[in-house]
Structures are given as C-alpha cells and as structure tokens.
What does this fold into?
Amino acid sequence: MKLEDFREKQIAGAASDEELHEALEREFQVIGRRLRRTDGLAKSSGRAIFTDDISLPGMLHAKILRSPHPHARILGIDVSKALELDGVHAIVTGSDVPETYGILPWARDEYALCIDKVRYVGDGVAAVAAVDEESANEALDLIEVEYEVLPYFLDAEEALAHPEMPIHEPKKPDANGNISKHVRLEFGEVDKLLEDSEVIAEAEYYFEGTTHTAIEPHCAIGWFDTSGKLTVWSTTQVPHYLHRELARVLDLDVAKVRVIQPPIGGAFGGKSEPFDLEFCVAKLAMITGRPVKILYTREEVFYAHRGRHPMLMRYRTGADKNGRIQAVDASTILDGGGYESFGLVTTYYSGQLITAPYTMESYRFDSTRVYTNKPCSGPKRGHGSVQPRFAIEVQLDRLAEALDIDPIELRRRNLLGSDTRTVNEFLVRSNGFLECLGAVEHASDWKDKYRQLPYGRGVGVAGSCYISGTNYPIYPNEMPQSAVQLQVDRSGRVAVFCGASEIGQGSDSMLAYIVSEELGVPLDYVRILAADTDFTPVDLGAYSSRITLMCGNACIDAAGKIKKLVKQAVADGWDCKPKQVALAGGWAFDVKDTGRKMPISEAFNLAEAKFGTLGATGSYNTPKDIHGDYRGGTIGSSPAYSFTAHVAEVEVDRDTGFVDVRKIWIGHDCGRALNPVLVEGQMEGSAYMGFAEAVMEQHIFKETGLHNAPSLLDYKIPTSLDTPELESLIVESVDPEGPYGAKEAGEGPLHPSIPAIANAIYDAVGVRIDRLPFTPPRVWMALQLRADREKAGALAPWKRESGRTPLPAAGD
Amino acid sequence: MASLDRPGELLIEAIRLTVNGDTHDLGVPSHYTLLEALRYVLGLTGPKQGCDKGDCGACTVLLDGVPTLSCILPVQEAIGKEVTTIEGLAAPDAPHALQDAFDLTGGAQCGFCTSGILMSAAALLAANRSPTRLEIREALAGNLCRCTGYTKIYEAIELAAAALREERMPAELKGS
It folds into this structure.
C-alpha cells in the first residue's frame, strides 16, 4: 500500500479544506454539536453487554434468604439440610462476613448478611450458591432461622416517640436509638423577620417515598482466581467505593480486588452504594473457587430500595409587601428506613439545598432522620432536595397569591444572581436562572394562561438549583476527585481510561467529545475504557451530578498535555510557532494557511518520534475552603450550581380528581451543553421522573412491613401514554469552573416538576394538594372540601361565576 | 416423566426453534420461557430480563412479526414460529433504520429497554410507515423506559419511519 493510500485510510471522515477553513471561525469543533453517542449503536443493536449478560465458565448462581419479619432478633440459623441438597455448593451467613459496611465511613451499620437482628422485611440472613437458580431457591426453603420477633415501627413520628424500643443501639448513652441524624442550622434572625413579614405562608407537606425502578435489576458476579485475586462485576454507580468496601469487609489486599462496571441499565441513585449481593457473590466465590452470580428479582430491587426518603415538612415562609423573602423556617422529619445509607448527607441536603435560586434574608432548618423498620431510604436523583423543593416552591406560590403578584414575577424579585453567596454561604458563580424563567414563561405563553385558562385547566411555575458534584468526597482525602489517562496509538486512535461510570447519562461519550475537540481526531478514533479498577484511574462515581464537570476537566487536562507536544512537533517541522498549528477534523493544519496540513496520525507520529510514546494523565480536584465556616458548611458546597425553571400545564377532571399533565416546559441552565442531544435527554428524563413522582409513584408498605406493590405493574411508573409532552429549553451561562463552562443536567431538571404541577393544579381548580402523589382520590377529596366551603360562602367560586362550566374537549 | 422437584432431574425437552432465520434443535428444561431459551441456551442476550413477569417489556421479541413478551411465554409456544430478536433486526451490512435513528436522536440512554422498544417499534413500522405520534405512543405502551421520558424515542421512530418511506438511512435525512 502506498503511503498516500494509507493516509487516506487513516483519516476517513476527515474534514475537507472548506470545512477546515470554517473550523477556524468556530469556537469549538465538536463541543456543542448534536453528535451520536459512543455507545448508541451498540445499545440499539442489542450488542452492549450488561452485567447479567455475562456468563463465566463453571458459574454458580446464588440467592439470598430474606427476613419475613420487619424487626426481629436472630436466635439461630441452621443450614445443614440446605447444604445436603444436590447442587448446593456453599452457604454463607452473617458470621462468615462479620465486618460492617456502609457508604459513609463514619456510619457503617450494615452487614453483608444480618448477624444479630433484622430490621426490615427483606433484610438478608443467608446466601446459597448452587448450580442453578432453581437449586439455590430450593435450598433457601430448607434453611431454618429462629427469630425472636420484636415490636416494629413503620411510621417515622411513631419511631421517634419510642426511644425505649430502639431499632439501632443508641450512638451515645441516653440518645434516642431511633434517630439517625439531627441537624439544626440557622442563618440570620428568622423569628424576628417572620414577625415583621407582611405575609406568611404556613403549611405542612408530605412527600411519600418513591424508588428508582431502573429497568435493569441489580446484578453482580464474583470470581476468586487461583492467584488470590477477587474480581467483581457489578451494576454499581460507584466502582471505586465498592472496591474499597469489598477489600475492607472481606479483609483482602485492596490491590487484589478488581471491580468492573459493565454498562448499566439505569441507576438514578439506586446503585450508588455497596449492596449485600456484591459481598455475597465475593464471599461465595472465595469459598467455592467458582464464579458466582446473583441477579436480584424485581421484588428484591424494591426491597433493596435506597430511594427517596418520605419527608414530613412543616414550612413557614415570610415575605415583605414587595414579595421579597424575609424568612424561611423549615422543620422536617425524614423516614430513613432500617439503616444509615447516605443518611447524614440526606439530612443536611434536606435543608442545605433550597437556599438558591432565591435570596432570603434569613433561613432556619431543623431536620431529623429517623429509623423505621422499612427498606432503607437513600439517594434518588436530586438527593434529599426534591422533597423540600416541593415545599418551598409551593410556599412561594402561596405568597405570590397572597400579595397578588405573578409567581414568575415574585421569583424574579428574589433573584440570587451570579458571583454571590447564598444565605448559607455557598459560593454561586454562573447563574442562568433568570433566562430559564424567561424561556419557560415565553414558550408556555404563561401570560396568556396564568389564571386565564378556563376552570379545570391551569399552569404552574417552579424553580430550582442543584449541585454539580460536591467539593468534598465521601471519604476525607486530598487526592483528585477524578482522573483520566490517555494513550495515543500510531494509527491516530486515542484510548481514554477513566474510572467514571457510564450509567446511561453519556459519560463515555462526553469524554470522547472532549478528546475529539482537543486533539482533532474524528470521534470514532476515540476508544473509552471506563470503570475497571485494575486499569482506570480513580473517579469517585456517578452520583451528585459530578461527572461532566469533574471528569470533563480531568480529560481537558490530560488532552492538553498531549496537544502541546503534538503542536510543538508539527511546528518544529514547519518552522513556525506552535500556536500557529491547529488540530481539528482529523488534521494538523496551519491556521494561517489551511492548505498546509498533515493527517493527525502523522502529527502524532512526529510527536512520538520527538518526545517518546504519547500518553498523559490529567486530573481534577475541587476548590476547597470556599464554603461557609460552620459545621455542615461543606455539605452542599459545589464547584458550580445548575438552575432550572419549569412551567407545567394540567387539566384536572372535576368528577374524578384525575390530573392530566399536558405539557412541561423545562428551562435548564447547564452552563454549556457539550452535546445538546444528551442534555435534552437528561432534562426530559428528569422532568418525566418528577412528573411520575407527582402523580403516580407510591413506595409504601402494608401494616406487616411488606411492600405494598413490589412489581413494575403495581408500582405505577408512567408508560408512553401517561407521559406528558416535554419541551427542553437549554440555557447556557458558561460557568468559570466547568469544562468549556459546563455544569450538570442530570438531576437539577427533576426538581421543579412536582411543585410546578402542584401549582398548576391550584391554578386549574383552586385546591392545594400538599401531600404526594396527587392521586385522583386525594384531589377529588380536596375538590369536595373546597366545594363545601364555597357552598358555605367561605370561599368564592374558583375562576367561574357559579355553577358548572363545561370543560373544553380534549385537544382544544 | 421426571419430577420437577429436583433440579438434577428436570425434564428436558427437545425442541426446534427458528430464531433470526436460523433453525436450532435444542434441549431445554420444559419449564423454560422463551426468554430463558434465548438468553441461556442460545446466548442471545439482546432481549433483557427487567421484571420476569411481563410488566416492563424489555424482553420483547417478535413472534411471527407480533411483539411478544418472551419472559412469560413458555418456550413451547414458539415452536413452529419465526422468532426475531434485536440481534436479527438488521440486515448484515447496515443497521436497521430504527437502530440508526435511535443512535442519532439519543433514543437510547442506558439502553436496557431499547431492544424491547425497537422490536415493538419495528412491528409498528412494518404495519404502518406513517404512524402518528399517538399511534407510536400506543405501540410503545407495553415497554417501560425509565431514562428518556420517551420524547427522543418518538423522534427516533418518526425519523426511522421517514427514512423507510424514502428508502434512505436516517443519517442521510438528518445529515450526521
């Protein structure tokens, strides 16, 4: 093959001369374009290999025996009959893995399998590895567990009132063993400012628990090879934390534990801490010398849970006559379920994260997380702050009404602005909230609709703010939060190694876009190897919306080092300055004469000849010491905050109480959209999930402690026919800390859905539904109560003179 | 007949399955569902197990062209019929228009429900090259997606439909 042909082949898809000329005019070549994902075709052709798709030679299947009691002491476990069953290879119980685990290092309170007590229906007590699932299930029936059944609590307030029956041993003598965490923080003079307020909104809100229901159930495979190395494949969003916990709990050398995270079939926070199955497959693999797999049943997923905390929230919010927020006084009880999980963080988040996008003169929150005998609550998309966001945004709607101010205008009057600090001293840099509000106001025809639509139809607005990662990692350390390693091949192919977790959000693609942008290689010349702890530098995981900002910056750092060498090598050959060399579209070219160019692979070869093998690492660490100087001031402190505004339009059926959400307009400030397709996908998915929680989802329990509806049929999540129309409106504020200015988009846009729908229901029919979800019985009851008051003359008819106004036909 | 109580004595049935155009003579445990036969015996892991009780649609395959929940279909019911899984959707030389369109519009995020959704969509487009938005929503009502809010999925199916009508690839229509 002639060299020319070889080059031709190397730069398939390279830019034409014209395109190169145009490239000079653009700020970015790849960033901001509507591009394909790196894994899109693999997924749409069924070729992506998820954890349960992996089958290893000689693999055993394991099942976990789970407690039928919500609270009981384990008096004894007899596995002898089960062990005799044909096909059974090993059984482990709590005493085989006697070390506690937990995602927060200072709150490890779970065992791989329970030792002394079970704390919810579904708590694991034994695990069986057998030749197939049927044999393992049969063996579970033969395990005899003797329990001493204990009193149990399914209600947080009840558990709080009964410290004499603790679910956990009290942390200190005289402490209440049913309190997992209590936080009280006050900023400014709340009581005085409330007293001086022109109007006060006061109400109690209840957020019923919801769970993630990723379509892929949790799955893990353990393999302990003859050299003494443990490998665990897992559907985890946090391979690095799982790596550490596996080594610690199983007492193995961390260097001899490898965690591999295959593509994940949805997570939403439901896979962001270690679970019993990972320890069980590992321990069973160590005992049997065979690979061992556990795949949760759908029912087990509901009991594994770690979803949204039920929260009882009492709010008082005062404003002056101009609608400026004077004081917010929040008191919250969080239902934590049986264990700690991220509980300490959730408790802080329930108060810390509502102090933007509005200025408030003063703020106080008092949050108490309580243990109950239910599956453990944890982080779900919008960790800890979706619930209070519901409360505060409905409070603002009440204030706006009391003061006769348009609710969008009221929000404008309380703008926080950019380069400023919140009342609890978080540093906010870029802030596109005003543009978000304007975008949804305009797109929804708000001014023509608010209080103008006929009875039964209405619009509501809400805003929110969210973190782009946290400035402090889960375990205290000074090392980078994220790192990327690049390796350049002579063909022009660039390999990216990164610990980041692709969970569907597109983190692999994000890394590829950045490498393509920085090094000028076509997108399909970038290969991603992610989330394999043997080969990828540490990234802390896919939680708190941290990956784009942190891995993105790490990737720019690494690519920048290679770019510098390549430009130097080419410039030396051309006898010009490195800044005259650009890398784009598959070429290295002269910015002063785009006719002078060489394939990017040739440029890489020149650099390799000059400087040696081309590779680089890059890392990112968060800014420290920019938070408020008070205990808890670090929690919620983020490098950048995203902002969102929604308008929801609803139609409420007067006769049934059914709420039909017709459309949600989503304005979201993501700093910069690295790929608008992916950003819109996050916005739409978030708004959908918030809508689902607003009107459908109920993660609730029967009196026996059994889940009310542990299936995807009975636990209602929206189908295509239920989901409203969703319109994404991207706002780009270009953050100084984010990569190319980017901030998060994966969690923030969930928050306003629920209060926007609540406020729209009020606009439609004049009732406030302060308990989630807004089910037909609940709405219907509120309509009856309002009708009674109207009849008694206590209230004027809502948006109508009197009598029944016929609703317009659907589609009008 | 062997007892079903003991794993070692499971009744194994010899069956002939036609999947993606190939005919396989297989021995499968008689209690197997079609999904189990596809995933565990044939190694076709494209169809997914999301709930194992017919609620989520991730296991959807075509049975003589009809979208079918393979996780609740006894494998015997597939005998004598054409089974098409996601692996058999495309011709050998190019992705199916739906696959390309999903890639272009971001219709797949995590990708776990995607194989099932594509099979439902493929059946729709086989019968109707110009589906309305409502017809698309109805065709997908048995497939849960938890990532996308369905919006990008509708766009993908509409793009694929347009491409099929014009006998071009979605990328040609969309210019990417």
In short: Chain B has two domains: 12-88, 97-175. Chain B touches chain A through 62 residues (CB under 8 Å).
